Amino acid sequence: MSNPVCIAVVGTGWRARFYIRLAQAMPDKFELVGIAVRRAESVAAISAEFNVKVFTSVTELVSKTSPEYVVSSVPWATNPDVLNTLVSLNIPVLSETPPAPDADQLRNPWSEVGDRNLVQVAEQYLLLPGHAARLAATARGEIGTVTSVQVSSTHGYHAVSMMRGFLGDPYSPTTVNASTFIAPLVDPLIRDAWNSDQSEKQATTTIATIDFGNGKSGLYDFTSNQWHNQLRSRRILIRGSHGEISNDELIRLASPTAIVKSHFNRYQVGHDLNLDGYDTEHISLNGAVIWQNPYLGARLMDEEIAIASMMEKMGAWVRQSGPAPYPLASASQDHLISLAIDDSVRTGMPVTTATEAWAPQFGA
Question: Is 72 left (phi over 0), alpha (psi -120 to 50) or beta?
Fold first, then answer.
């Protein structure tokens, strides 16, 4: 018999709807018990759209639905208030973004709610199938000690979270050097459609080197709208003491006198005469499965697989049957370094972050 986790969602924007749709698509894993909205005039429409109870107050949402955890998917300006309310009610919360737009406001939520250990952040990038397979390979020592990560696919704290995830989550002071370059680029796609305006526009590329200390480094490379612009490829390079992973290719020292190459191979059902329906089944490396789709049959795209995985890990954590998926401390550190990239661009100077109160040595 299934025992779905009872969740509620604050917000109904584009990102919030991922959580709502996934919860309702997998009733064996999740039960969506309620949604909170800001405007009273939205209640009837949202209730009819999702066939769920809708409230205009976070407190009322919690008191009348008793969720095991709440997803907060609201703008930065209002997120701290939502987090404070939920923590004051002793409700675990999965925050869709780090809870502040700048360093000072980032420290405030930590001082207010950090020691309660109720806030996780919904950072899903390392749960995407390709990255999850690469992380599994590095965890089992395929390339030795990981020393450097280069990311060119997503921006800000998302990219930093990938770097720190592969590097072992360093919290030491970090030095950032960043520059921007502006050049013409056609932008053929917007979020979910083709762009009718395909003239050249000025696009900004931000490149930053990040010194995490102890010989660990990162290279950040992001161009405007690179998430959706398929004229710019996504690239990741993970370097270790005994080899490296470049996108889907792994090279390593197999013996004192032999260097070998192998590939991460994705197996998709639904091709040619396979009639199982289009879906991702697994990713293999060296002839062995290194990652399996936990939602085979649900026909989810990679982003949905990652978000559903985060939701499920959050449920395991609140039920004390799994580790914290992405604690506020990790999110705060990643966002702090992301803000340092912005500061370095703005000032044209290196920026060094300090060891913050959320670092593990301070009890985070």
Answer: beta
Rounded-to-integer distance, Cα 116 and Cα 358, Å? 12
Structure tokens at 297: 């049959």
**Cα 167 to Cα 92, 157, 201, 273, distances in angstroms:** 28, 15, 36, 42
Predicted local confidence at residue 19, as pLDDT: 97
Q: Report all structural domains of the chain as residue ranges with CATH numbers, in order of start.
A: 5-96 (3.40.50.720), 126-309 (3.30.360)
Instruction: Provide the token pair at 364.
Output: 């985070």
- Please measure the distance between the N-terminal and C-terminal CA atoms of the chain and give it in whole angstroms: 37
Spatial distance between the Cα atoms of 203 and 194, rounded to a whole number of angstroms = 18
| Angle, vertex CA 291, rays to CA 256 and CA 24, nearest 5 | 165
- DSSP bridge pairs for 31: 6
At residue 364, does pLDDT exceed 50? no
Q: Are the CB atoms for 33 and 63 separated by under 8 Å?
A: no
Is the predicted pLDDT of residue 55 greater than 70, yes or no?
A: yes
pTM of the model as a whole: 0.94
CA 346-351-355 angle, to 5 degrees, is: 135
